[in-house]
Amino acid sequence: MIAFSMKQLVRTVGAAICAMFVGVPVVDAQMMVDSFDGPVTVNEVASFRTYVQTLTPAPDNLGNNWAQGHSGEQTKAMGLVYEISGDTGVLNQMIRFCDAVLSERNDLAPSPVGQYSIWTGRVDPVWPNNVSSMPIGTGGEQGDPIGHLGNCARLILTSSEMSDVVVPDGDPFGYGATYGERALTYVWGADSALDGHVLLSLLDLSRQNQQYFSLDSPYMTGHAVPWNQQMMFNYALQNLAACHEVLGDDPDRVARYDAIVQASMDWFFTAGHISYQDSAGNTAYNWAYAPPSVRGEDSNHGSLDAAGFYRAYVSGRYALTADMMTPFANTFVDVMSLGPRHYAGRVDGTTGSGHAGATTYIRSGYLLLADFRPDAYRSMMAADLTEGRTTGSIDQFSRFLWVKNRRARLAP
């Protein structure tokens, strides 16, 4: 197996293969785990590219398709793999999904996908997840579609050589013929969703930018935004802050977006958790679903929390250090891992039911924490993945590749 060393090589090969497969269905595609160690291989990236060519964007956000649903997880996975590989075929599929999500925004999409008057009394720039209950509510799930647009735009804008290259999709929605033009459309679409709903009506940021739902919101009226939903909003804000920083077009917007994410981070690390010494003698965290409580977050939402804090950490924007992140990893490895294929339903090591039920698999957000526990890396990846075998789990595979790449880059 040949490990790639140049993103340009992968871009060239990926573009050629992608062109060969345009309009050709790929049956029973799977993603290949060549090895847990060493650099990410061309074969692993190619298997991912082939797999994502079989995927179809969701037609709407009902049931949170674009948040923690399939299309949302698939779009995040494409972003991770493109960021480490530079594979243009992967980026092109991510663009296909981002075109879809923008076109499905309530104020842009025709009925029956869009044109709903929501709880504000307006046809707001949102992605409804349930149009059968009245009034039509919104919550943290609004952050993810905005975040997908911002993330894709950031990836394009930070690859300056892509700016004037034509996207090989014929620009079906009129969002811009080149990668650079498409990125600017995504930034506009994301900013206008924040301006026209999230920051205008949904969030109350009057407490030093801490995220609370507004007193007018029918969902969690006046309550603190749960951590997993803060991570959704932060996903949008941190990527858009990075976009505007590259563009150099709106420093006030950069400062505002960064300030909201920073307040979220500061809230958790100053008052949103308990630190303690676990049974292995390491520092671990206990935290809750939402502040001001600080105990007993369930495993499902804890995975989303972990992924969100990790995104903020790797962005390098919010003063998070490895020392601050390592207790998350200790919590999973020392406290939640109860035995082979046996993982606790809560972050404190206890188990309940529903989202707090025990699992026989590792929820994929926790895989990112292997970055801070190299001693547990192989056992964490081997829980659900096998060297030399394939997988159909795109969120697990993409996060495995991300950590594998980090380990190879930092190896002496």
Low-confidence stretches: 1-27
**Beta strands, count:** 8
Instruction: Calculate the mean pLDDT score and round it.
Output: 93
- Silhouette: globular
Radius of gyration: 21 Å
Could you give a short account of the major beta sheet? 2 strands, antiparallel
Sequence of strands across the biggest β-sheet: 1-8
Number of domains: 3
Distance between the termini: 21 Å
Q: In which range does the helix fraction lie?
A: 40-55%
N-to-C order of helices and strands: HEHHHHHEEHHEEHHEEHEH
Helix/strand class: mainly alpha
Percent strand: 5-15%
Count of DSSP H/I helices: 12
Indicate the topology.
Blueprint: H1 7-20, E1 31-33, H2 42-52, H3 70-85, H4 88-103, H5 143-157, H6 179-202, E2 203-207, E3 210-213, H7 227-247, H8 251-271, E4 273-277, E5 283-287, H9 299-315, H10 322-336, E6 337-339, E7 342-343, H11 377-382, E8 389-391, H12 394-410
Antiparallel strand pairs: 1-8, 2-3, 4-5, 6-7
What does this structure look like?
- This protein has twelve helices and eight strands.
- With 412 residues, it is mostly helical.
- The chain has three domains: 1-54 and 385-412, no CATH class; 56-271, no CATH class; 273-372, no CATH class.
- The strands form four sheets. Strands 1-8 form a two-stranded antiparallel sheet. Strands 2-3 form a two-stranded antiparallel sheet. It has a two-stranded antiparallel sheet with strand order 4-5.
- The longest helix is centred in the middle third of the chain and has 24 residues, at 179-202.
- The two termini are 21 Å apart.
